[in-house]
Amino acid sequence: MPTAYGDTGVWQRWSTYAATLHGGNVGLKELVDEKGEEYYRTNMRFALLEYWSMRTDHDHVLERESYWKDVLHARSLGHNKNWSGATVPPMPIKLENVGIAVRDLDATIAFFTDLGLTLVGRDTVSGEWADTAVSLDGNHAHIAMLQTPDGSGRLELFEYIHPDAIETDPTRPHEIGMHRVAFSVDDIDEALEIAARHGCHPLRGVATYGNVYKLTYLRGPSGIIVMLAEALQKD
After folding, report:
1. Is the pLDDT of residue 137 over 70?
2. Interatomic CA distance for residues 197 and 30, integer angstroms
3. Can you give the pTM of this predicted structure?
């Protein structure tokens, strides 16, 4: 039960199945390995369940794919075992935290806790393990872990004792690499008032994205770009 989208659409998808016999679908690969290529070529059939413009939103296409898999029980009774083209299940992984080196640890903690994050703990790290982990000789830093109230997001802040922290020009939004952390807030005006008490203000102003969000970028402590967003459609 695959989807086909992009510049070449259905043709590309069917060509892949014809060439590989399984199109990256683990369930079909297992079937070909068990029954043989001739069985596959004799019994394989294509059916077009829905057709959408090639300009249709990617997420909508995936929603319809999931719908048909549920309706036709393609996962439980069929051969749908899609693991991104892999031949084994993906390794379990989750985002643990985002690390940021800061100029003043106390000031940065104050900023983020005023916005609503919780201080989980503080520590000082050094030693051979720390040198090896981040590839810095004599690595020695004060650290703090903060998390959102629901525990879904964490920031790890570092204030370096050794080696000396390196000052850099403030990151701009269009520069390559990581440049911001983003938070959803219930009231963006209140959040901006809190940020202002720390001397942090929007880079330009507050924008409205359709009828979805009010959002802004502001420059936080140590030049960190922080995005704040308020959903306009409240639950």
Report:
1. yes
2. 61
3. 0.59
